[in-house]
Design a protein that fits this description.
By secondary structure, this protein is mainly alpha-helical. The chain is built from 16 helices and no strands. Helix 3 runs parallel beside helix 12, helix 9 runs antiparallel to helix 10 and helix 9 packs antiparallel against helix 11. The longest helix is centred in the middle third of the chain and has 46 residues. The chain is globular and about 70 Å long.
Length: 374
């Protein structure tokens, strides 16, 4: 399965069991060599808390982003909505069905066909959660580095088609993992099929998307640094230039989602490859422990985006406040909506309304404004 099972079976004290004591337990050799979970019931408690917190905040995020998408008609919010929906699917399939129900409740006493079907669904949801971030990164790159092109190619209908294509491809990509080996129960060395699936898995969920993030984020940083230098020159010429220091914070906020993903998923990627070539989860309790901890970190990624959005975006905070208070006020002041498609407007999609005013005062006129009669 995507996230190994069996870590809740901790009734045997693995640490001080001798060979003679094991023989007295009348266990077969395969069971004697099987590693036990060092963390005990901690993963069950952790995943239960993560599910109880993650699902409600993701639902709240989805409702708030739906309001922002319907009112602003910006592709950004549709991509963020796709990421949030995929995170909810990951929490339901991987944490609730895969870990809590199959392992903690039924102890995997369910038909094997169902286990493999759930495994394919887990991988599909996992791929959708990760790859929904890729078009978001591409959209941000175009918006920041090519704002005029962004106004031409980025609109809600196209964003919805891209999201549908990503979800469909994610569903198809989960089918081969129907044959994913159970790392907790298989005592034999990895087969050629196991090696192909593992390398396909780590490429899809980490190496390929992180390569895209690295390239596009590097281009974004280079462009913003050049723009920052230009704004310093403008500041020397006139007092109305926006403070250049804001762009550094802006860049950090735009890269937060991909950076958090890269950090949280790196340990699990390393452990999966290590278990393929060095030692399996089945035989080494240290790999078992590393796998448990890395899975816990990876799944944390499905619940942290809400807090990132709240930290970054004043419109998002306002939308969340309206949802909680059951009200539907305007997102922006009327004056701030006068020129929603200025060249640098896309840069401030995730930022406070106060920053928008400073950007409007300091940025050149867009072609639409330049042609307006005085």
């Amino acid at each position: 399965m995507l996230f190994p099972r069996g870590s809740t079976r901790v009734m045997i004290d693995w640490s001080n069991v001798t060979a003679s004591g094991l023989q007295e337990l009348d266990q077969n050799p395969e069971e004697l060599q099987r590693s036990q979970c060092v963390l005990g019931f901690i993963p069950v408690v952790y995943y239960s808390i993560l599910l109880c917190v993650g699902v409600p905040v993701n639902i709240l995020t989805a409702v708030a982003l739906s309001r922002l998408a319907s009112r602003t008609k910006k592709s950004l919010y549709y991509y963020l909505l796709a990421v949030t929906g995929s995170d909810i699917l990951s929490q339901l399939f991987i944490i609730f069905v895969g870990f809590l129900l199959e392992t903690a409740v039924f102890h995997r006493d369910v038909p094997e066909l169902l286990l493999h079907s759930v495994s394919a669904a887990e991988f599909a949801a996992n791929h959708a959660s990760i790859w929904s971030t890729v078009p978001l990164t591409v959209d941000r790159y175009v918006a920041l580095c090519h704002p005029l092109l962004h106004r031409q190619i980025s609109y809600p209908a196209r964003a919805r088609r891209i999201i549908a294509a990503v979800l469909a491809l994610s569903l198809v990509s989960g089918v081969p993992f129907f044959w994913w080996s159970d790392m907790w129960r298989n005592s034999h060395p990895p087969t050629a099929v196991d090696a192909v699936l593992i390398w396909t898995h780590v490429t899809i969920i980490y190496f390929l998307p992180c390569s895209i993030f690295l390239v596009l984020n590097s281009l974004i940083i280079r462009t913003l640094r050049a723009r920052q230098t230009q704004q310093r020159c403008q500041e020397e010429r006139g007092p109305k230039s926006a403070p250049p220091g804001r762009l550094g914070k802006t860049t950090a906020m735009l890269l937060a989602i991909t950076s958090v993903f890269s950090v949280l998923w790196a340990p699990r990627t390393v452990v999966v490859i290590y278990s393929l070539y060095v030692s399996s989860v089945h035989r080494d309790w240290r790999v078992h422990l590393a796998y448990d901890l890395s899975n816990m970190l990876a799944m944390l990624n499905t619940a942290v985006n809400f807090f990132l959005y709240c930290f970054v975006s004043k419109p998002f905070r306002s939308a969340v406040r309206d949802v909680i208070l059951l009200r539907g006020g305007p997102l922006y002041p009327r004056r701030a909506l006068a020129h929603p498609q200025a060249p640098n407007a896309s840069i401030s999609s995730l930022y406070s309304g106060n920053n928008k005013r400073s950007h409007r005062d300091s940025t050149p006129l867009s072609p639409r404004r330049a042609t307006k009669p005085s």
